UniProtKB/TrEMBL annotation:
Membrane-spanning intervals of the chain: 64-83, 103-123, 135-151, 157-180, 192-217, 224-244, 265-284, 304-323, 330-351, 357-380, 387-406, 426-444
High-level lineage: Eukaryota, Fungi, Fungi incertae sedis, Zoopagomycota, Kickxellomycotina
Gene3D superfamilies found in the cross-reference section: MFS general substrate transporter like domains
GO MF term set: transmembrane transporter activity
Subcellular location field: Membrane
Region named Disordered: 1-54
Protein species of origin: Coemansia spiralis
Membrane topology: Multi-pass membrane protein
Similarity field: Belongs to the major facilitator superfamily. Monocarboxylate porter (TC 2.A.1.13) family.
Principal localisation: membrane
Protein known as: Major facilitator superfamily (MFS) profile domain-containing protein
Amino acid sequence: MANSAPMNAPERDIKPTVASPNDISSKQSTSTIDSEHHQQNAGSDITDVQEETQKPVRPADCKFGWIPTLAVMVNYMFIFGASNSYGVFSTYYLNVKFPGTPATTLAWIGTLITALMLGFNIITGALSDKLGYRLVAYTGTILCTAAYILASFSEKVWQLILTQGVLFGIGASFLFAPSISIPAQWFQKHRGLATGVAVSGSSLGGLWCTAATQAIIDSLGYKWALRILGILTFAVTGIMNLLYFRRVPARPRKTLFEFTAAKRLVFWLMSLETFAMYTGYWALTFYIGTTARHLGGSIQDGSNLLLVLNAGSAVGRVLAGVIADRFGNINTLFISLILTVVIEMPLWMTAHSMAPLYALCALYGLISPTFISINPVIVANQFDPEVLASVMGMANLFSGIGVLAGNLSQGAIFDKYDKREQFTNTIIFSGVFILFAGLVTLAMRIHVIRHHDRGNGHTTIFNLKQHLLQKV
């Protein structure tokens, strides 16, 4: 519609007048030339727009947006379900299958799942914007399925590292890249809620995947658990990928990466926050089952604790989105990170029975994963929607590095300093990095507010009371 004005403009400018035949002929000739000129320009404009948009763009916050959002939620069950339920495999590998293998070595499997899923996102995110969501997602489906099947035939730790760790992590990154930007792209007013609903699928996946994996291991063994998960991943994500629609077409570009994002301080602050958070976040997931065993519990007790953790997380991620829409996404993120430290360290350190562990898992699951829901919203609010997958991919590179550094460090600390008999040093390591993530988030909050005030001509003098009351 925007291009109709240039085509119609000459018609509105022509007014009927009484003139000689020569004048009429001259005016008709001039009008024809002008009309053709405008039509050519308009046609060129239309062609440019069509090449730029490629397909119609639906309005934000329309009901249709819930279709791809719910498809993302289902896919998240399988993308993050593997990492959120890995505690079941970790407990089995550590205590049954490979009891003499150092925890640091076994930690490579679960670590690489998440580290490569996030770190490799710098490539898969750019490919999603350049090649299309569905092609990238289907590549992930095939790789994840192959990883599960190959892992089921593995007998050595290094084989599981390459299959269940490396191959699945890369495959999950291909699924994750288009998924992470879809909800924020389709919604504006309820962006936090939509993103929270979508990422709640990761907790729901951890919930049923944990229970199903434990049940299959108990009845059929860990190999069949891997094979059944592979079959389910192939069938379900293969269907959900069909519903991956973009609202805003990708911006044509010559380079693969969105380097302009790296020029902004908010990008680096968010990247540092995610690095620090992922460095400390997975300690509880990986070691809560072993903690239960040390307190006299069974492998099933460890599985039950993971169920509680994931159930709390499913509620918390949706709730975080609702709260963020009401009170500001960065505000909500900062408060949740601080509360995570307040809950994790005392409850885990002082636990002498199963009851505190269940309370810890419920509260940690409810509060800690807020950053997973809110970081995509921050990117959507701070950057253009056409490049969401690319910018999130670049930021997630630091998340993957955090997972790699954090999980391997935790395994070394548990082996060397906690002597596999306690968890004090592991807990301190986790808590310190989560606290640091909270402080970085506070710095990001101050930067965003001051940048906004400066852009609107407001004073740049920092006023603590004014800034604390602002919603961001």
